From TrEMBL:
It comes from Pseudomonas wuhanensis. It is an enzyme of class 7 (translocase). The lineage of its organism: Bacteria, Pseudomonadati, Pseudomonadota, Gammaproteobacteria, Pseudomonadales. NDH-1 shuttles electrons from NADH, via FMN and iron-sulfur (Fe-S) centers, to quinones in the respiratory chain. Its EC number is 7.1.1.-. The gene is nuoF. This is NADH-quinone oxidoreductase subunit F. Keywords: 4Fe-4S, Flavoprotein, FMN, Iron, Iron-sulfur, Metal-binding, NAD, Oxidoreductase, Quinone, Translocase.
Amino acid sequence: MTLTSFGPANRIKRTAETHPLTWRLRDDGEAVWLDEYQAKNGYAAARKAFADMAQDDIVQTVKDSGLKGRGGAGFPTGVKWGLMPKDESINIRYLLCNADEMEPNTWKDRMLMEQLPHLLIEGMLISARALKTYRGYIFLRGEYTTAAKHLNRAVEEAKAAGLLGKNILGSGFDFELFVHTGAGRYICGEETALINSLEGRRANPRSKPPFPAAVGVWGKPTCVNNVETLCNVPAIIADGVDWYKSLAREGSEDMGTKLMGFSGKVKNPGLWELPFGVTGRELFEDYAGGMRDGYKLKCWQPGGAGTGFLLPEHLDAQMYAGGIAKVGTRMGTGLAMAVDDSVNMVSLLRNMEEFFSRESCGFCTPCRDGLPWSVKLLRAIENGEGQAGDIETLLGLVGFLGPGKTFCAHAPGAVEPLGSAIKYFRPEFEAGIAPSSAVVPPLAKPIVVGA
């Protein structure tokens, strides 16, 4: 996946001052290996962190920067790091990189791992130093075979250069890093399900508390961060908090830059590093180039299949968590999808809910039974065989599977697009209700219990 930089007037130049994640990318899309990465100031931030900064200072710097998780939840990274125990006697701790990128329409982490594997390794090395973790794992989506190959090569390069292993940079600090390929389940994107899978268990989410910072992998303190989140750490350490905060647009409550993209029938589908606070319209028109000739934008999702649909008039919302929340949904992963006017929303939602239903771990009843129920109803409506009350039942499921009603966030994310689709395109759902079911005939003879 080659990152594109199509702008309204001319191509945007990526520099270290404005594009901390992507300025090192090669124009040919090939991976940046160790020699080239170090020639482009790679591992300078790690050397600074090891030589000039106390471990707690690294944590505080990341906290002050306002960096938030880039996997979709948006939890403050420094706060999460601060949950790790301070007790020096706990000498076994783990750092996990969540690279199980299974969200439909999202491929940002794949680009970073395939083309800039050393950026992720440097981010994990600095994070491990800050968190006093002696071992790290990159839990990688199993289908990402190129990323696995590139990460393993980069790990070996870093070991040979003394940047991983024993006594890193003469500091006395040891850190081992392993690439672990998963078995291909969406639910592993939830951090405790990821931990269970890494341990060889069924990928079910765990009850929290205790949180992974207290009881994680093999019962030891564990910190789990997303790929893009960890890739932000070197620039924050190298160039400071004030610079990092200055990257975001005015009005954004989220700091720094974000990998954003657009897929669907747009003229220039792609992925770009942009400051938080750009509008959806800039992303759609100036970068993605608008819809292809002959197609009209019907609606769009701002950040993966688990986010609600928005209408064209919502494109002026700023792309940050609070900005997207103002128009009724979530920022998610920041990779948007355009839905064109030829798409039937019932068919689209049936396809989505089939995916979410199949990927449920089956642990809790609302998710295990509710998602297949939604698929059954949507399939009937799609075939013109829906019954009176089916739409109300679907809306009921949206409520029953909403936030706080299930064991983890899988089901709430699954039904968010369903609720928004019915809200904005209800006539398309009503068109699938069979005419004969519009009036339900009364029972010919009342049923009397015990008669």
